[in-house]
Structure to design on (1456 residues):
C-alpha cells in the first residue's frame, strides 16, 4: 500500500498484476460502478434516462489522476467524495443529484475491489493452469527417477523425483476445486446504501441490485458491508497457494544445495554473487519461501479485518486495502517464479542415484 | 500446547472440547489406528490373523498414561516410538514384528489428529446449529425494531436490530455450506509409510489404505504427509468462525456501552468489578473479540506449517501440534459464549428508539 | 492458556517454568499482593493494624484451588472477585471491608503477572548464562576449525566453525545488555485503583504505591493499567531470544543433514524413527526453529494487546493472559534445548575439511 | 514493497518518509557505500589512490534509474551486481578490479538500509518530539477537566481528561529513553565480505571497518550478516510506537462516538460520507488503529527474519526488504496523524461533565 520498489519490481512483483491492482484500475472500476448504477436506475425509472446518459457521458470524458484524490482521501478517509466531485464538474446541474443516488462509498469501493479481484483471478487461474501443466509433465517424466527422501532433515529412504513433484502438484489441483466454491461468495456486487439496507431505493432495492450486478458481470448479493467472510475465504486461498509454492521452493533449495546437488534451479545459470563468481543461487525458490511467509501474515490481517464493528469500520477496512493488493501481487509473482522454475530446472538424475548409493553404504 | 489454566477453564476454554483434544484422546486414537491397521493387514493377508488378534488384545489391555510418553517424545520428537514399545510389552515375541507394519509415525499421529478433528467437528457443528437457531429467532423477533446504525464510529441512519443480527447470522450460514467442501479433504486417513509411497506394502498399499480408512470411518487418501492444505483450509474456517463471532462481540460491546445502553449482555447480571459494584461488564463479548484475534494468529501458524520441507519436517509439524488444539478449543469456547449471549441478552428497544430520536434532533 | 499436553511436556515445555506460570503460582502471587497491600495500608494508617493482621492470617490459612475460581472467572471475566470472596470466608466481619481496600482487580492481576515474570527471569537468565558459557567454550575450541560457509543455500567460501558459533553467541550477549534496560519498566508494581488514579487513597496513593512495591520487592510506578509498553518490550526480548536460538537450530539442521554430515546434534544418539532405525534426527534443533516461529506470533499478540482501549480493556488484556505464559515457557524450553545441544553436539571436523576440499575441486 | 497507492498517499503514507525509503535513496546510499569503501581502502593502501578517485568520479557521474536494476535483481536476487556493472561502465579498465574490493552484496545493501534508517529516525524523532510537546500541553490544559473513565466498555468512575492524555504521553516518553539504547546496535556499518570474516582484507579488516564507518557517520561493527537482532529490536520499537498511538486513536474514537460526544477529532470538520452529510468521521484515529495492527504483523515478519540460516539467507532477508520500509512509513504516517489530531481536536468539557452527571443518576 505505501511502498513500491522498481528495483525489486521483477523479483517481488508481477507486471501483469500491477496493472490490475493499480490506482488507475481502481478509479476506472469506481467510475464503471457509477455509470452502471445510473444506467440501471434509469432502466428501473428511478432516475431520468437523460440524467443517466449525462452521467455516462461525463464519466467517459473524465480523465482522473490518482493524485487528484489524495487530499480528499486524507480528509474523508475514502476517495469516493472527491471522485464524485470530479464527475460532477462534468455534469449539468440538473443531473448532479442523480449521480451515486442512494449508494454509499463502500458500495463503490467494495464493488471496485471485486472487479479488481475478478481480473486478478484471470491472471492467477491462467498461471496456475500453466504451472499445473508443467508439474504434470515433470511428474510423468521423472516418475521412475530414484531420488532420496528426507525426513526431519535426514536422508530417509529412496522415492522418485516424480513423487516429489506430485507433492507440489496435488495441492494445486485441489486448489482449483476449492476456488469454484470460493468464487460464489466472492464475485458479487456490493450495493447496500448508507447503512446496508437499500433504504433509499424503497422496494426497488433488490431489483436494482440484480440489474447492477448483471451490468457489471457479477452476481447480485445482499449487502455485505460488514460481512467479510467471502473475502477472507478467498485470501486464505491465495495464502495457501503461495504456501504450496513455498514448499516447492523449500524443496528445490535443499536439492540445489551444493552437497546434495540433485537439481539446478536454472539450467541457464541462476543467481550470481558480487563476491563469489562460482555461485548459482536458487533465487526464485528463495522468493517462493519468503512470499509464502509474507502472505501468511497478510491473511492474518484479513482475518482481523473480519472484526468489522457496527455498520462500517475503517479500522478493519483499511487492513483490507493494505493486504488485498499485496496478496494478489505476491501470489501472481510466486506463480510466475514457480512456472519459471519448472521450465528451467535441471534435474541431475545421476547425482540423485549417487546420493542413494552413498547412503546405502553409510547405513550398511 | 504448553499452558493450561484451570482458573480460566470456563472463560477461555470449553469442557467438552478439552476432552476431545486431551492427551488421553490422542493416545486412544493412536492405539485405535494401530489396532485397525493390524486388523486390516490381517484381512488382506499381509500379517497373520493371529498376530492381529494379539495386537488388538494387547491394545485393549494397555492403560497408557500421557506422562509415560514424555521422555521418549523428548528423545525422538514424537510419542509413537514409546507408544509402540508400550504395546510390545503386552505382545508375544512372535507378534512384535507385525505391529505398525510398514507404517510411519506420521501415519499414526496425523490419523489420530484427524480423528480428533472429527470429534471436534461434532461439537462445533452442534453448537453452530444452536447459535444459528438462536440468531434466526432474534432476527425475526426484532425484524422491525428500529435501531441506530453506526458507520466509522458515528451514528449514521436507523436500521433495525434484526438487520444487525442478520450480519452475525448470514456468514454463519455460509460457513455451514463451506464446511461441506472442506470436510472432503479433511476427514481422510493418513497412511503413506516411511516416505509416503506405501513402499512396504508393495502392490497392496492402496487396498490397505482403503480398508484402514473404512475401519476408522474416514475417507481413503493418497499420502498427505507433506501436503497440509486440507488442514489449513479447515483451520481458516475455524478462524473465520471466531472472527464472525468476534464481530458479534464487538457489536454487542458498543450497544452495551453505558452511553448507548441498547442491550445488556446478560439480563441476569454480567461481569462484576472488584472495585465498582455498579458495573455490568459484557465479559463474554470481550472474550469473543479476543478469541478472534488469537485464532487469526494461530491460522497464520497453520499457513506457515504448509511450508513442510522434504518428506517430513518437524519445524512445520510442531506448529500444527501447537496451533490446532488451541484453534479447536477457542472455537468451541466462542460458540459456547455466543450461544450464551444470544440466550441471555436483554434488548432495550425503548432506548434504541430514544437514541434515534435524540440523533434526529442533533442533526436537524 | 487452554491446552497443555503431558505427552509433549518435555519436548515443548519446561518443568521449572511450568511451576512459575502455574495457576497455583498466580493465586499465590495474588494472595501475596492482598496481604502486602493490607500490611502497607496499616503501616500508613489507612486501615487498622488489627484488620491487616487478620487479613494476613486469613491468607496464610487459605488453601485455594484453581478450579474454585473458574465459575466466577466465567461470570466476571476475572478471578479476583472469587479470590476476595474466598479470603473473606476466613475473615471476621469487621475486617472484610479493609481487604483489597481501594484496589482494583487489575492491580492484583498485573502485579501477580509481574511477580511471575520476576521468577521466570531467574530461570531465563540462569539458563542464558549457561548457554553463553557453553557457546563461548565451543567458539574458542573450534576457533580455527575450517568449515564451509553457505550463502543463499549454496557453498560459499570456508570460514571456521568457531565463527559460526559466534553468530549464535554474540546476539545473546547483546540480549543480556538489553535486558538490563527492559527490566526498569517491567519489574514494577501495579496499583492504580478502580480507574488508575489512586483516587481512593486521596493523598496517600503515591506513598502506598512505594511501600507496597518495597514489600513485594518491585519498583514503584504510576498506574500502567492501559500502558502495556513495558510488557511488550519484554516479550519482544523473549521472542528475539527464541529467534536467536532458532537460527542456531536452523544452522545445526543444515550441518547435521546427511549429505553435509558436519555435526551430529546428539553424540549419544538423537531422534529415532518408528520406520527407519538408521535415523538420527536433530529433534531439538527442529524444536528451536518451531518455537521461534510460535513466539514471533505471540509477540504480535502482545503488540495488538497494547491497543488497550479506555481505562481497562479485556479484549486486549486476554491476549496477554494467553500469550505471556506461553512466551515464557517456550523461551525456557528453547534455552533448555539449546544448552542440551551445545552439551551433546558432536563436531565432525574431518568432514568439515572434506567438504571444503570437495568444494574446491568442484569450482576449479 | 509491491504496491503503492497515490490515492491513499496522504492517508496511509507520509511524504517525507517516502523520499527516505525510495529506490532513489537506496541507490544513492549504495553508491555512497562503494565510494566510501574505495576511499577508505585507498587511505589504508589497499587499493591505489588513483583507482579510488576514479571510482568516486564514476559514481558522481552516474545517473542510475531504479528500473535499470530490475532485470538483474530478478536474475540474481539482489540489485548489487547490476549496480556494480553500471559503475564499471564509467570506469577505466584498470580501476574496475578495485571497485567493491573484498566486499559482498550484503555489505552494500545492509549498510544502505542502515543509512535509510538513520534518515528515517530524524523524521520519526522530530515528529515524536512534536507529539510529546502537544500531548504535554493537552495534559496540562485539561489536568482538572473531569471526564468519565470506562473499564471493560462500561462507564466506571470519573477521572480527568488530562489523565487520559497522560496514558498516551507517558509511553512515548519511555520510548525516547528506549531508543537511545536501541540505536547503539542499529546505526552500525555492515562490512563482512563474502562470508562475514573480512577474509579478503587479511589483517586490515577491522581498521577498514572502522574507517568506513567513520566516513559514513556510523559506528563500526563486527559483521552482522546473520545477526539481525539490532534490526528486530528497532522494528519492535516502531511497532510499539504505532501501538501507543493506536491506543490513542481507539480512545479518541470512543470519545468522539455520537452518544458520548466528548471530543471531535477535527474541529474544522472531519471525514464526510458520500451518503450522509451529517457525518464527522474520526478518520485519522481510525488510521492510527489500523496502522498499529499492520505494524504488529510486520514486526512478526522481522522476528521470523531473524531465523537467518547459514551465512546468508534470502528467505529471511526478503522479509526485511518487505517489512522495514513499510514499518518506517506507517510509523511516520501515524505520527503525522497523531500530531494532526492533537492540534485539531475539540474538547467538549461540558459534555464530559454532563456524561458524569447522567451516570451518577443512573447508578443512584
Amino acid at each position: 500500500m505505501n511502498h513500491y520498489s522498481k528495483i525489486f519490481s521483477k523479483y517481488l512483483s508481477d507486471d501483469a498484476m500491477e496493472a490490475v491492482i493499480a490506482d488507475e484500475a481502481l478509479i476506472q472500476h469506481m467510475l464503471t460502478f457509477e455509470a452502471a448504477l445510473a444506467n440501471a436506475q434509469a432502466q428501473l425509472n428511478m432516475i431520468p434516462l437523460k440524467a443517466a446518459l449525462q452521467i455516462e457521458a461525463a464519466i467517459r470524458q473524465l480523465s482522473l489522476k490518482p493524485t487528484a484524490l489524495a487530499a480528499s482521501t486524507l480528509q474523508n478517509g475514502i476517495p469516493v467524495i472527491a471522485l464524485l466531485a470530479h464527475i460532477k464538474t462534468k455534469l449539468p446541474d440538473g443531473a448532479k443529484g442523480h449521480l451515486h443516488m442512494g449508494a454509499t462509498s463502500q458500495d463503490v469501493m467494495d464493488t471496485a475491489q471485486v472487479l479488481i479481484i475478478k481480473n486478478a483471478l484471470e491472471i492467477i487461474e491462467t498461471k496456475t493452469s500453466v504451472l499445473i501443466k508443467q508439474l504434470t509433465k515433470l511428474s510423468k517424466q521423472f516418475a521412475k527417477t530414484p531420488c532420496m527422501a528426507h525426513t526431519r532433515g535426514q536422508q530417509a529412504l529412496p522415492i522418485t523425483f516424480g513423487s516429489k513433484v506430485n507433492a507440489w502438484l496435488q495441492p494445486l489441483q485441489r486448489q482449483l476445486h476449492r476456488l469454484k466454491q470460493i468464487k460464489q461468495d466472492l464475485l458479487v456486487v456490493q450495493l447496500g446504501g448508507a447503512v446496508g439496507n437499500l433504504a433509499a431505493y424503497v422496494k426497488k432495492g433488490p431489483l436494482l441490485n440484480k440489474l447492477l450486478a448483471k451490468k457489471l458481470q457479477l452476481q447480485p448479493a445482499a449487502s455485505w458491508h460488514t460481512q467479510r467472510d467471502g473475502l477472507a475465504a478467498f485470501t486464505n486461498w491465495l495464502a495457501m497457494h503461495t504456501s504450496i509454492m513455498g514448499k516447492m521452493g523449500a524443496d528445490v533449495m535443499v536439492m540445489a544445495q551444493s552437497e546434495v546437488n540433485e537439481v539446478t534451479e536454472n539450467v541457464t545459470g541462476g543467481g550470481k554473487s558480487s563476491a563469489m563468481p562460482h555461485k548459482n543461487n536458487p533465487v526464485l525458490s528463495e522468493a517462493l519461501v519468503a512470499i509464502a511467509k509474507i502472505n501468511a501474515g497478510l491473511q492474518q490481517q484479513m482475518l482481523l479485518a473480519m472484526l468489522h464493528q457496527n455498520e462500517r469500520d475503517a479500522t478493519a477496512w483499511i487492513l483490507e486495502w493494505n493486504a488485498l493488493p499485496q496478496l494478489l501481487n505476491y501470489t501472481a509473482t510466486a506463480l510466475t517464479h514457480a512456472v519459471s522454475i519448472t521450465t528451467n530446472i535441471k534435474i541431475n538424475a545421476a547425482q540423485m542415484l549417487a546420493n542413494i548409493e552413498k547412503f546405502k553404504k553409510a547405513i550398511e
